[in-house]
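Field reference: sequence -> structure
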Amino acid sequence: MQNPFYGYGTIVLGQRLVGRDHDIQHFTDYLSSHSGSLSVIGEHRIGKSSLLHEILERITKAKVNFCYTWLDVSTLPNSIVAFREMLDGLLECLEGQGQSLPESLGPVRHRDSADSYSAYRRCQQGLNLLRKAGISSLIVLDEFDAVRQFEEPESFIRRLRALIDARHTTGLSVVTISRRSLLAIEKQLSGISNLDGVCEKHYVTPLSEEGLSEIVKRCGEVWQPSAEEYELLKWYTGGHPYLAEMILCHSWDAQSVSVGIEKSQANILDHYQHLRDLLTEDDLFEQLLQITVGPRWNLKTESLARLKQYGLIKPVSGENGSHQYRGWSEHFQAYLEKCSREIPLWEIWKATESTLRDLIESICYQELGPEWLDKLCNRHESVKKIIAGYELEEADGRKRKIEGCKDRMLKEQRHFGLSASNRILEYTYPADLWTIIGAEWKTFQDFLGGKNKDKKYWNERFALLAKIRNPIAHNREYVVPEHELTLAQAYCKEVLATINKE
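Structure field:
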């Protein structure tokens, strides 16, 4: 038996297109009845085009007086060509079916279009004539994200909306296929939505476990993965059809899912990077990390909704019945956790400490004047101990001097002379910085998130930062649990984002 997964990543039809039966039937009925237009949205290689090809094949077999054309918007240089190709593609479809074109279409078909508007009018008039001849039309605009590269994309979208709105005279339905929603595309262009409200939206997501099982069944009698191998495939793919077919294709000769995964690792990571680039452009990747890894400090409800629609996250049961989410597969979740730690912790740590010191100096100088540090020491014994140090009585009654910032500064100046910093807060640690902030909490509260993030909220975060500061400063991260390193990095990002926002 030939490898049934050859050609993974290309358009799949018929028996290869599994797990989409409900969607295929629904949208075949929807478009066959000429009920309106459709927006198909989904991430890279999730199966959007395959879904539409199957639907069109079924409509074409079942419906007469119907024509369609499929355009890849990323290959079109401008809206002039786009409108011309729309009408020409429909007419070529009819000729391919052996149908005679209405004579009235002749002058319109051969008319030149010097600009976008005249190309639009030519398309509109041609559609009207087809409609009068009893012919309904469907235009598929694949890679619709690329419309943003047109010279006047807003005008193109408005004119496309006009053709859809006049369906009673144009007989036209449009299907857009894109990686972003129409709303997101239009907001990037003008902030005004023209198409989003007139197209039924459908997000193509990873398959259910039943769909994944159907893919595996295509192995036939030659080889069926064991229960353990199936669980491994599910762990890596979470039902993503492209990833599942790729792994099974590479598994075929050795009849081993583990071998297929090993051969597919680089391509899986390339796929993740492609997805990350898309989400980063739309300001969603950092939101995804907050949702799946945490902590959540500026999570937007809109982002959560969009990521759920994409099927990139799935709900899981949290502690005390809390709502939590993970990536669509366990492997993707592990990738997200890795991404949350990809900036060297010490690097982001230094940036965080520097930002906190700048904040303290700036705010205290504004509030208390040039002698702000002396005034803080007089106000708060805790701050005085940080700056000047103090004596600690041991269990045996002996007293031990605990160095303060001034002691550490003087020591460094003795050792390094003029190259030593004379900025007193350079010699503070995270716990010290929090002590100062906490002592003057009313002054700093508005700069750390206001009432939404109270003193207890930040105390918990600084406690963890203080706990692991020494291990990472001395390159001993390995003694700190991995989840604490992840949290620490996220807390540093939160501090930076909160202060910089304010």
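Note: The radius of gyration is 31 Å.
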